[in-house]
Write a structure and sequence with these properties.
The complex is a heterotetramer of chains A (364), B (143), C (412) and D (502).
Chain A (H helix, E strand, L loop, with lengths): L10 E10 L5 E2 L1 H9 L9 E6 L9 E7 L2 H14 E8 L13 E9 L1 H7 L3 H15 L3 E5 L4 E6 L3 H7 L6 E2 L1 E9 L12 E3 L2 E7 L4 H8 L11 H15 L4 H8 L4 H4 L4 H13 L9 E7 L2 E6 L8 E5 L2 E5 L2 H5 L7 E3 L7 E4 L7
Antiparallel strand pairs in A: 1-10, 1-16, 2-9, 3-8, 3-10, 4-6, 4-7, 5-6, 11-12, 12-13, 13-14, 14-18, 15-16, 15-17
Helix pairs in contact in A: 1-5, 6-7
Chain B lengths: L1 E5 L9 H9 L6 H5 L9 E5 L2 E5 L8 H5 L5 E4 L2 E4 L9 H5 L6 E2 L6 E2 L13 H5 L5 E5 L1
Antiparallel strand pairs in B: 1-8, 2-3, 4-5, 6-7
Chain C lengths: L1 E5 L3 H13 L4 E6 L11 H6 L14 H4 L2 E5 L3 E5 L4 E4 L4 E3 L2 E4 L3 E4 L12 E2 L4 H10 L5 E5 L3 H11 L4 E5 L12 H14 L1 E4 L4 E5 L2 E4 L4 E3 L2 E4 L2 E4 L2 H6 L20 E3 L6 E3 L4 E3 L4 H15 L12 E6 L2 E7 L4 E7 L2 E8 L2 E8 L5 H9 L9 H6 L8 H9 L6
Parallel strand pairs in C: 1-2, 1-7, 2-3, 7-18, 9-16, 10-11, 10-16, 11-12
Antiparallel strand pairs in C: 4-5, 5-6, 8-17, 13-14, 14-15, 19-20, 21-22, 22-25, 23-24, 24-25
Helix pairs in contact in C: 1-8
Classes of the chains: A alpha+beta (364), B alpha+beta (143), C alpha/beta (412), D alpha/beta (502).
Chain lengths: 364, 143, 412, 502
C-alpha cells in the first residue's frame, strides 16, 4: 500500500472552526465537541486541529512540530534545525496514551528563531527562510516530517477519529483564540500521520473538505515557486497557493479568494469597468491557481480565520455568530452542539470568503 | 414574402437547380425514375457565359405583369405566389411575351405554360432548387 | 362612393381589382349587355377548337363579383348616360347613379357594305361568346366556311373551326395576312404554315358580290360556301361616351390615368385610345393585357390612388396550329433579321432603343425583349449584340442583374 | 506517350442505373475526369486524372458515383509496397523531388489515441454544463511576475503585458492567402470574429479587404517577409514569427508563380508571376540572440501593444529550443507537430522529419516549468488536432491553446486529397482559379467553421464537466486527468502521465 506522497489521495471530510474576535482564550474542549458531532463524516483515518494563541510565552518564536519515524530521522532533522535556528526549547509534545491511537511516531516540538547571520547571508526574508527549511526537511529527510511551523500556533494531528486525536494531544490543556479541526475520510489509503489535516505552512493552516479537480494544474504551477507537494493532498496544495498568493505575491485574503474561487466570467462581464478589470486581471495572471471541484476550507492565520467555499458551493459549510465568537462548520449541528443560541447563522455563497480577524488592538 | 434570390457571385453553373426543379415537379419520389433518359424541362434555368452563370426563375413580382396580362385568368397570385392553373391555360404565350425575366416557359408539350411556383404545389413544399444549390447561390428569403 | 362600370370584360375586371386595392368599401356596379359572368373574349376560338369550355373560359372565378362586392347587372344594355345628373339610364328604365364612371365598352365588328350580303343566310361575327355559340351550332363536317378577313380574329376563327368542317377559305383585301402585326416576310411564313394545315387564302382580293351561298370575288373567282364569318374589322364602341361630350378620336381619348376630358369619367380597353410609346401617338391598342392594365389604372385613380399607365405598346402573342408568334412595338427603324427554318426573328431599333420585334417559332423568353421596349432601356446600357442572339439577362450589367435577380435595390 | 509504369490509384465507379447524365460531375471536376458521350448518352470517366477529392461524389444528385481504391496491384511485398514502387517510377520518370501536401500520412503512433481522460465518480461531483457555467475563456501571453498596486492600494491592472483573449482555446493556424483562396481566408476571418478567436494570415500578407477583421487576426512574419509592412503589423492582434512548420521542418516555402496573380501578388508585395520563395531559415536569424532582436524589433514597431508569437516545428530538441524562445521576449510559443498540414512539401521531409506534437508539448511544458518560466509564456500547439478530445488532452498536457488548420479546411470542404500543390482544388480552397475559388461561399464556409468550433466547445465543456472542472484553466497542465494506454515506460515518462489502472 502506498502512502501519501506516493499516490494522490482525495478525501471527504468534516471541518469546524471557532474564532474569538475579542481574543478570549478557549481550551480545546469545545472544538473537540464540535468536530465529534460530525463523527460520521470521518472514518478514523485522520483527525487534527490547529490552534492559535496557544504559545503566549514563546509567541515570538517559531513553533516547529515534527513527526519522527526513527531515531536516525530525529538526529538528522535536529541537526538541520539546530543549524538554522536558535532553538530555545526542544521537547516532546505531551500526549495521552490511548489504545485507539496506534503506530505513533515520535512527536517533538522546537521553539526557535532563524539565526540572524543566516538570514543576512541568504538575503531571505525570515518567513521565506523558515518555509525553505521546512520544505527541505520534508523533502530530503526520510522519516522526519514538520507538520507545524508558525509562531504562537500549533497543529496537532494523527491517524484516528478527531475527538480521539484531540484527547490524545491533551488539547484541553491548551488555550487559544482560534481553533480549527478536521475529521478525515480518505478514500483509498489507511492514512498516515503526516497526511492528516490540518496542513500548515508557517502560520497558515488549512483544513479542507473536498476533492479539487484542478489539483495537478495547481500543483504543477505552484511547484515552479519553490514548493514541493510531497503529500499529493488537496490541503497541501491549497496551503501553498494561499501562502504564495498572500505571503509572496502580497494579495489580500479577499484577492486570494477571488483567485482560487474566482467569480464566473458571466458575472465578471456584468461588473462595472474597474471591477471587471480587477477580476479579469486576477483570473488571467493567476489562472493556474483557480481551484475547481468541491471544497470548503478554513484557513487559520495569525490573528484571523477565513472560510471559503468553491465557486459552485459543492460542499456544505455554515457560518454562525454569537457575541464575539464566530463559528464555522461543515454542518450546523456541529455549531449548535457547542452554542445552541446563536445570534446569526448563514450559509455563505460559493466563492464568497468569510474573513474574521481579531478586533482592533487585541493582541492575542 | 419569402422569395428566391440569386447571387451570381456564388453560382457555379452546375445546373443542379434545374435537375432538382425537374425532379420536384415530376411527381415522382425517385429522382432516377423521374429524370433518367429524359430531357428535363425545369422551371429554373441557368444562363451562363464565360465564367458567369446564374439561375433565373420567376421573381413572383409584387406587380405581376403576367397575371395582369393573362388572357384566361389562369395565372393568379395566391398570397404572392404566382401560379398557373394548367386547366385554364390555353398556351397563348401572352405571359411569355410579357415576363421581363423570361421566367415563364412552355410546358413539356407546349400546350400550356409552366413556371416556378416556389414548390408550393409539390411535395417539396420549399423550393427544391434552393435546397439543391450546393453553394447558396440561390436562397429563399424574406427581404 | 358609387363606381359604375359599363362593360364586363378585361378592362372592367382591371378596374374592379384596381378600385379594391385602394377602396375596399365603395359600391361598384358593373353593367353589361351580355348576360354572362366575365369571360375571356379571345378564348372563343379555343372554345370552338375544344381546348376550353364555358366554365374554364371564365376570366375570374365564379365568386368574383361577390368576393369584390360588385353588383353585376348583366344582360341589360345602357340607354344613355346623364352626365349632369351623374346617372346611367338603362334600357329597362332603371337608373344607376354614379360618382365615378368607367367606359369599358369594348369594340364591335365593323362590316363594310357588300353587295348581296343580305342574301347570305348564315353569316356570323366572331367577337363574343354568343357569336361562337351560334357559329358552333351551325358547324358540321360538311360545312364550307368562308371567312372574310385575314386578321387575328379571322385566322383564330379559321384555326378554331378547321378540324370541324370540310373547308375553310379566307379572303382579305390586303395582299398578306396579319398585316397589322407582321411584316411581309413574317406574313409569308405564317401564311404558308396555315395553308399547310388546309386553309385556303385569297389575298389582295375581295367579294364583289354575294349570291346566296356563292361569293364572287373581285378577280372573278367564285367561291361556294355554307357559312360566312365576317372578321373584317372592329370599331371602338364610343357612342355612349361621345353622347356626354367625351372627346373621341378613333377611340375615347384618355390621359395616362385613363381619365377622359370629363371629370369623374374614365375609359379603358378596346373602346379607348392610349399613348403608344413606340411611336408616341394616341392609338387604340385593342389587346387584352392593355385593357386590363388600363382598367386597373382607371380603377386605382377613381378610388383616389396614384397610378399611371405609361408603358402601353402594341403587342401580341398568338399561335396558329402550333406556330407561335410574338410581336411587339412598331417596325420603323434599323432591322436585325434572322431566319432559320420556320423560326423568324426581326428586331427593330431606333434612337438607341428597341422599338419592336417579331418572333415566329421560337418565342422563348420574348418578354425580355418586350421589357426593353416597355422600359425604354437604352441599348448601349446592355450588350445588344448578345441579346440579339436570344433574349437573356446575361446582356444586362451585373449590377442590373443584381437588382433583377438578387434583390439589390436599384440606385436610380 | 512514353510509358510511365503508373496505374491510377483510384477508380471512379459509376452506377449506370442511377446516373441521369446531368453532367454535374463533368462540370465540377477541374481535373477533367468526367465527360459526356452524346452519342451513347453516357457519362465516361478517365480515372488517371482523378485525385479522389469527392467533388463529383458529393454533388451527384443521385449518388451514382463512388471512388474506390484500385485493387490493381503489384505482386504483394511488405517491403516494396505499391506506394514505394510507384514513387520510384515517378522519380525515375521525372528526376524530381516528390511533392505532397497536407500532413504526414504515415502510420506512426498517434499519441492522442493512446491517452485517456478522467471523469469524476462519487468523491467529487461531475458538473453538468447545461446547468452550471462552464468556462473556456483563455488568455495567451506573458503574466507579470508580481502584481503592482496603485497609491490607494488597488491592483494596477495596466501592468499586464499584451494578451490575446480567446472564447475557446482554439485558433486557426497559419495558411497564407495564395496557398488558400480569398474565400477561404474570408471564411476563417469571419469565423474567428464570430467565435471570439483568431486566425492567422500565414506568410502571404493581409488582403486589404480583411483589415477589418484585424482584431481577430494574427499576422505572420516569415523568412520571405512577404506582405510585411507597418500597417500589416499594426493591423493584427498579434504577430507571429514563423521559424518552422511541422509539415516541413527546416524547409522554406515555395508558392509557384502561377498562383501569384492579381490580389495575391499585390498582397504579398511581389511581382505577378514570380515564384514566392521563402528561404529555409530567416537570414537575419542564425541564432537565438538574433531571434530576440527580431522579437523586440517587432515589439518596437508596434509600440509593445501586441504579443509576439514564435512558431517552430517540433523537432528533436524542441524543449531546449522552446526554453530559448521563452527567454527571447516572445509572449507565446507555437509548436507545430510533424502531422501538421501544408500546401506543398517535399514528400520525404513531410513523412520523415519532426516529432509528434504530443511528445513535444509534454517535453516543452515540463521543461519550462522546471526552468520556472512557464508563466512567462503561453504555449500553443498544432499539427493535427483532430477533435475536441485532442484539445482536452493537449490542454491537460500543458498547452494553453491549440492551432487547427487541417480540421478547419475539412470543415470548409477539403477532402484531404492531398493535391493542393496542383492549384486545382475542386473545393475552392487551395486554388486561385476564379471559377474554383467561387465554389467556396464564405457565407457557408464561415458558418461551418463556427459550427465546428462551437461543437468542439460543447464537447470540451462536457468532458471538463465530467472531470469536475468548470474552467479551462484548471485543466491546463492537469496531467493527473490523463492516463496512458498501451504506452511504454519511456513514453509515459515523457508525457508525464501514468498508465491506465495506476
Amino acid at each position: 500500500m502506498r502512502l501519501e506522497g506516493d499516490v494522490r489521495i482525495p478525501s471527504g471530510c468534516a471541518i469546524s472552526g471557532i474564532f474569538s474576535r475579542s481574543g478570549k482564550k478557549l481550551n480545546g474542549e469545545a472544538i473537540i465537541r464540535s468536530i465529534s458531532t460530525m463523527h460520521d463524516r470521518s472514518n478514523g483515518l485522520g483527525g487534527g486541529f490547529a490552534a492559535y494563541g496557544i504559545y503566549p510565552r514563546n509567541k515570538d518564536l517559531y513553533a516547529i512540530h515534527v513527526f519522527y519515524d526513527s531515531v536516525r530521522a530525529k538526529e538528522e532533522c535536529e541537526k538541520e534545525i539546530m543549524a538554522n535556528f536558535d532553538v530555545t526549547v526542544a521537547e516532546k509534545i505531551p500526549t495521552r496514551k490511548m489504545p485507539i491511537i496506534t503506530d505513533e511516531p515520535a512527536i517533538w516540538r522546537y521553539f526557535g528563531i532563524p539565526f540572524e547571520k543566516l538570514l543576512k547571508d541568504t538575503q531571505l526574508d525570515e518567513r521565506e527562510f523558515v518555509a525553505r527549511c521546512v520544505v527541505k526537511i520534508n523533502t530530503q529527510i526520510k522519516g522526519a516530517y514538520v507538520f507545524s511551523s508558525g509562531k504562537n500556533m500549533g497543529v496537532f494531528k494523527a491517524v484516528g477519529f478527531p475527538e480521539d486525536v484531540g484527547r490524545y494531544y491533551c488539547l484541553d490543556k491548551y488555550e487559544g483564540y482560534c481553533w480549527t479541526a478536521h475529521g478525515r475520510y480518505p478514500t483509498n489509503t489507511p492514512g498516515w500521520w503526516g497526511g492528516a489535516h490540518p496542513f500548515a505552512m508557517l502560520d497558515y493552516s488549512v483544513v479542507h473538505n473536498g476533492e479539487i479537480s484542478s489539483y495537478d494544474a495547481n500543483r504543477r504551477f505552484i511547484e515552479m515557486f519553490g514548493y514541493k507537494c510531497t503529500l499529493l493532498t488537496d490541503t497541501e496544495v491549497i496551503t501553498y497557493i494561499i501562502d504564495y498568493l498572500n505571503r509572496k505575491q502580497h494579495l489580500t485574503l479577499h484577492e486570494v479568494a477571488d483567485v482560487i474561487a474566482a467569480p464566473f466570467w458571466s458575472e465578471i462581464d456584468r461588473l462595472p469597468q474597474k471591477e471587471k478589470e480587477r477580476f479579469t486581471y486576477l483570473r488571467n495572471v493567476y489562472s493556474s491557481l483557480l481551484i475547481t471541484g468541491p471544497f470548503s476550507i478554513l484557513l487559520g492565520f495569525s490573528g484571523g480565520m477565513m472560510a471559503l467555499n468553491d465557486r459552485l458551493k459543492l460542499r456544505s459549510m455554515v457560518v454562525a455568530e454569537k457575541g464575539g465568537m464566530t463559528y464555522v462548520a461543515s454542518e450546523e449541528c456541529a455549531i449548535r452542539a457547542i452554542e445552541p443560541n446563536l445570534d446569526k447563522i448563514w450559509s455563505p455563497k460559493g466563492g464568497e470568503p468569510v474573513i474574521v480577524t481579531l478586533n482592533k488592538g487585541v493582541d492575542a | 414574402m419569402k422569395r428566391i434570390y440569386v447571387n451570381e457571385k456564388w453560382c457555379l453553373g452546375c445546373h443542379l437547380c434545374e435537375y432538382y426543379c425537374a425532379f420536384a415537379n415530376s411527381g415522382s419520389d425517385d429522382m432516377v425514375k423521374a429524370l433518367k433518359d429524359i430531357r428535363i424541362h425545369p422551371r429554373i434555368r441557368i444562363e451562363e457565359k464565360q465564367g458567369i452563370s446564374f439561375a433565373v426563375s420567376c421573381r413572383h413580382c409584387a406587380e405581376p405583369l403576367c397575371v395582369k396580362s393573362c388572357i384566361t385568368g389562369a395565372l393568379r397570385a395566391d398570397n404572392g405566389v404566382i401560379a398557373v392553373d394548367k386547366n385554364k391555360c390555353v398556351g397563348c404565350y401572352t405571359c411569355i411575351m410579357i415576363c421581363p425575366y423570361g421566367a415563364i416557359m412552355p410546358g413539356v408539350d407546349g400546350s400550356v405554360v409552366q413556371k416556378c411556383e416556389l414548390c408550393t404545389n409539390n411535395a417539396f413544399g420549399e423550393p427544391a432548387c434552393v435546397q439543391g444549390c450546393p453553394n447558396r447561390a440561390i436562397v429563399f428569403e424574406e427581404r | 362612393m358609387n363606381y359604375v362600370i359599363i362593360g364586363n370584360s378585361a378592362a372592367a375586371v382591371g378596374c374592379i381589382e384596381g378600385i379594391r386595392s385602394v377602396d375596399p368599401d365603395g359600391a361598384i356596379t358593373v353593367i353589361s349587355k351580355e348576360p354572362y359572368h366575365v369571360y375571356s373574349r379571345p378564348l372563343i376560338s379555343y372554345l370552338i377548337y375544344g381546348k376550353t369550355d364555358e366554365q374554364r373560359m371564365k376570366y375570374r372565378p365564379d365568386s368574383f363579383y361577390e368576393d369584390n362586392g360588385v353588383k353585376a347587372m348583366l344582360g341589360v344594355a345602357v340607354e344613355k348616360v346623364d352626365y349632369t345628373k351623374r346617372r346611367v339610364l338603362l334600357e329597362n328604365g332603371e337608373q344607376v347613379p354614379f360618382d365615378k364612371l368607367l367606359f369599358a365598352t369594348g369594340s364591335a365588328p365593323f362590316v363594310p357594305p357588300m353587295a348581296g350580303l343580305d342574301e347570305v343566310k348564315k353569316k356570323f361575327s366572331f367577337m363574343k361568346l354568343d357569336d361562337a355559340k351560334v357559329l358552333q351550332s351551325e358547324l358540321n363536317p360538311e360545312s364550307r366556311v368562308l371567312i372574310l378577313g385575314a386578321g387575328l380574329i379571322g385566322l383564330k376563327c379559321a384555326e378554331g373551326i378547321l378540324r370541324k368542317v370540310k373547308k375553310v377559305t379566307v379572303v382579305d383585301l390586303a395582299p398578306r395576312i396579319l398585316p397589322s402585326i407582321l411584316d411581309e416576310e413574317g406574313s409569308e411564313i405564317v401564311r404558308k404554315h396555315i395553308e399547310e394545315q388546309g386553309v385556303q387564302f385569297y389575298l389582295a382580293n375581295s367579294v364583289a358580290q354575294f349570291h346566296k351561298n356563292t361569293a364572287c370575288l373581285k378577280d372573278g373567282t367564285e367561291l361556294e360556301f355554307d357559312l360566312l364569318v365576317l372578321a373584317v374589322g372592329v370599331r371602338p364602341e364610343t357612342k355612349l361616351a361621345a353622347g356626354i361630350g367625351c372627346k373621341v378620336n378613333r377611340g375615347i381619348l384618355t390621359d395616362a390615368h385613363c381619365a377622359t376630358n370629363l371629370p369623374d369619367v374614365y375609359a379603358a380597353g378596346d373602346c379607348s385610345e392610349s399613348l403608344d410609346i413606340t411611336v408616341n401617338q394616341q392609338r387604340v391598342l385593342a389587346l387584352l393585357p392593355n385593357a386590363y392594365m388600363q382598367g386597373e389604372t382607371a380603377g386605382i385613380t377613381m378610388a383616389g390612388g396614384e397610378k399611371s399607365y405609361n408603358k402601353a405598346i402594341p403587342m401580341n402573342a398568338v399561335g396558329f396550329f402550333g406556330l407561335h408568334i410574338v410581336t411587339a412595338g412598331s417596325y420603323d427603324g434599323e432591322a436585325y433579321v434572322v431566319k432559320e427554318g420556320s423560326n423568324y426573328k426581326k428586331m427593330v431599333s431606333k434612337d438607341n432603343l428597341l422599338k419592336g420585334y417579331i418572333l415566329i417559332g421560337d418565342v422563348a423568353r420574348a418578354g425580355i425583349y418586350t421589357s426593353l421596349i416597355r422600359e425604354r432601356t437604352p441599348l448601349d446600357s446592355i450588350d445588344y449584340e448578345l441579346i440579339k442572339e436570344k433574349p437573356q439577362l446575361m446582356a444586362f450589367t451585373a449590377a442590373e442583374r443584381a437588382v433583377k435577380l438578387g434583390g439589390a435595390r436599384n440606385e436610380n | 506517350m512514353p510509358i510511365d509504369f503508373l496505374y491510377p490509384e483510384y477508380e471512379v465507379i459509376r452506377n449506370p442505373q442511377r446516373c441521369i447524365a446531368c453532367r454535374v460531375c463533368e462540370r465540377q471536376c477541374a481535373n477533367e475526369v468526367h465527360s459526356y458521350d452524346q452519342e451513347l448518352n453516357l457519362m465516361k470517366s478517365d480515372e488517371s486524372k482523378c485525385v479522389n477529392c469527392h467533388r463529383c461524389v458529393a454533388l451527384c444528385p443521385t449518388r451514382a458515383l463512388k471512388i474506390v481504391k484500385t485493387d490493381h496491384t503489384f505482386k504483394t511485398n511488405a517491403n516494396w509496397t505499391n506506394e514505394v514502387i510507384g514513387e520510384i517510377y515517378r522519380q525515375a520518370g521525372t528526376g524530381g523531388m516528390l511533392l505532397s501536401s497536407m500532413g504526414n500520412p504515415k502510420p506512426y503512433p498517434v499519441y492522442w489515441d493512446k491517452i485517456l481522460i478522467n471523469a469524476s465518480q462519487v468523491t467529487n461531483p461531475s458538473i453538468d454544463p447545461l446547468r452550471e457555467p462552464m468556462e473556456t475563456r483563455t488568455f495567451l501571453g506573458k503574466r507579470p511576475e508580481k502584481p503592482e498596486r496603485n497609491l490607494d492600494g488597488t491592483l494596477k491592472t495596466e501592468n499586464l503585458p499584451p494578451n490575446l483573449e480567446l472564447s475557446v482555446p482554439v485558433m486557426f493556424s497559419a495558411m497564407s492567402y495564395g496557398s488558400i483562396s480569398y474565400n477561404a481566408h474570408e471564411s476563417l476571418a469571419r469565423a474567428a470574429q464570430e467565435l471570439g478567436i483568431y486566425y492567422n494570415t500565414g506568410e502571404g500578407g493581409l488582403h486589404e479587404d480583411f483589415y477589418r477583421y484585424g482584431a481577430n487576426t494574427i499576422v505572420q512574419v516569415a523568412s520571405g517577409r512577404f506582405g510585411v509592412h507597418k500597417d500589416y503589423l499594426e493591423a493584427g492582434a498579434a504577430i507571429e514569427i514563423k521559424i518552422g512548420q511541422g509539415a516541413k521542418p527546416g524547409i522554406g516555402g515555395h508558392l509557384p508563380g502561377a498562383k501569384i496573380v492579381g490580389d495575391v501578388s499585390r498582397t504579398r508585395m511581389i511581382p505577378e508571376g514570380s515564384d514566392a520563395i521563402s528561404p529555409a531559415p530567416h537570414h537575419d536569424i542564425y541564432s537565438i540572440e538574433d531571434l530576440r532582436q527580431l522579437v523586440y524589433s517587432l515589439k518596437e514597431a508596434t509600440d509593445y501593444k501586441k504579443p509576439v508569437i514564435v512558431k517552430i516545428a517540433a523537432v528533436h530538441n524542441v524543449a531546449a529550443i522552446a526554453s530559448g524562445i521563452a527567454r527571447s521576449g516572445a509572449d507565446i510559443i507555437a509548436i507545430d507537430g510533424y502531422r501538421g498540414g501544408t500546401g506543398a512539401a517535399p514528400t520525404r521531409i513531410r513523412d520523415n522529419v519532426g516529432i509528434p506534437i504530443e511528445l513535444a508539448l509534454a517535453a516543452v511544458d515540463e521543461r519550462l516549468r522546471q526552468e520556472k518560466i512557464r508563466n512567462n509564456v503561453s504555449l500553443v500547439v498544432g499539427g493535427s488536432i483532430r477533435n475536441s478530445a485532442d484539445i482536452v488532452k493537449a490542454i491537460a498536457l500543458g498547452a494553453d491553446a491549440v492551432y487547427i488548420a487541417t480540421a478547419a479546411l475539412l470543415a470548409l470542404g477539403c477532402h484531404l486529397c492531398r493535391s493542393c500543390q496542383t492549384g486545382k482544388c475542386n473545393w475552392g480552397i487551395a486554388t486561385q482559379r476564379p471559377d474554383l475559388v467561387k465554389r467556396l461561399n464564405p457565407d457557408i464556409g464561415y458558418k461551418r467553421l463556427v459550427n465546428l468550433v462551437s461543437a468542439w466547445q460543447h464537447e470540451i465543456k462536457e468532458m471538463m464537466g465530467g472531470m469536475g472542472i468548470n474552467s479551462i484553466e484548471a485543466l491546463k497542465g492537469n496531467r493527473l486527468m490523463l492516463r496512458g494506454i498501451g504506452l511504454n515506460e519511456k513514453e509515459l515518462e515523457i508525457l508525464g502521465i501514468k498508465h491506465a489502472g495506476e
